[in-house]
UniProtKB/TrEMBL annotation:
GO cellular component: membrane
UniProt GO BP: glycerophospholipid biosynthetic process
Top-rank EC class of the record's enzyme: transferase
Pathway of action: Phospholipid metabolism; phosphatidylglycerol biosynthesis; phosphatidylglycerol from CDP-diacylglycerol: step 1/2; Lipid metabolism
A Pfam family it matches: CDP-OH_P_transf
Spans through the membrane: 7-28, 34-53, 74-102, 186-210
Gene3D superfamilies xref list: 1.20.120.1760
Name assigned to this protein: CDP-diacylglycerol--glycerol-3-phosphate 3-phosphatidyltransferase
EC number: 2.7.8.5
């Protein structure tokens, strides 16, 4: 295997996947959320660059073709586990995350079973849009938690009545809680909407892969 720049970027993206979860073991929030978001965004950007550079520089390789989808799936699945784990387990978040994880496991198992025939299941443009929607949704959901925990830090020592009064506009907002609450809510709604879009695309592309794989799953006559 040649250590080309595209392959190095792919390996770094794979290593960044568990790093997103590790951030929450060694840093307090919201810093853990900030570091996880930066790490996730950096990895997402390399997802575009490694493929673009490999094609432009004619450095496409079997190693990169094998590792690239693994790195993508690891990034998405681990980030979703972290977000769901630190959430209130809302079904509006858990359900699309479950659909996404199920599809990724299903398609990975399908490709492993097909072996050499799996190369006939080409990645479609819709599947690429699915990956983009997943990564954007996850980034927005990380930002929601950043706004939330900055709110928590700024409201330390406040009683419930004071906090409610600031958010209702009855008390002067001297520490900037109101815009953080608005940003948190906006990021939450947008992130959830994008995650449901990603889940829908995930199920559609998963069905498409299964339909294309059916001829290879039939018993020999």
């Amino acid at each position: 295997m040649k250590w080309t720049l595209p392959n190095i970027l792919t390996v770094l993206r794979l290593l960044a996947a568990p790093g997103v979860a590790v951030m929450f073991l060694y840093f307090t929030r919201p810093w853990a959320d900030w570091f996880a978001l930066v790490l996730f965004l950096g990895a997402a950007i390399t997802d575009w660059f490694d493929g673009y550079l490999a094609r432009s520089w004619q450095q496409e390789s079997r190693f990169g073709a094998m590792l690239d989808p693994i790195a993508d799936k690891a990034m998405v699945v681990i980030a979703l586990l972290v977000i769901v784990g630190y959430s209130s387990m809302s079904p509006w978040l858990v359900l699309p995350a479950t659909f996404i994880v199920f599809r990724e496991v299903f398609v990975s198992g399908l490709r492993e079973f097909l072996g050499a025939d799996a190369k006939r299941l080409q990645v479609t443009k819709l599947a690429k849009w699915k990956t983009t929607a997943q990564m954007v949704a996850i980034a927005v959901l990380f930002s929601r938690d950043i706004f939330l925990h900055h709110m928590i830090d700024r409201s330390i020592g406040m009683d419930d009545a004071t906090l409610s009064g600031i958010l209702d506009g009855a008390i002067a907002d001297e520490v900037g809680l109101l815009w953080l609450a608005q940003a948190r809510d906006a990021a939450g709604y947008v992130g959830l909407a994008l995650l449901w879009v990603a889940a829908a695309l995930t199920l559609i592309t998963g069905w498409d892969y299964f339909r294309k794989a059916l001829p290879f799953l039939k018993e020999p006559a």
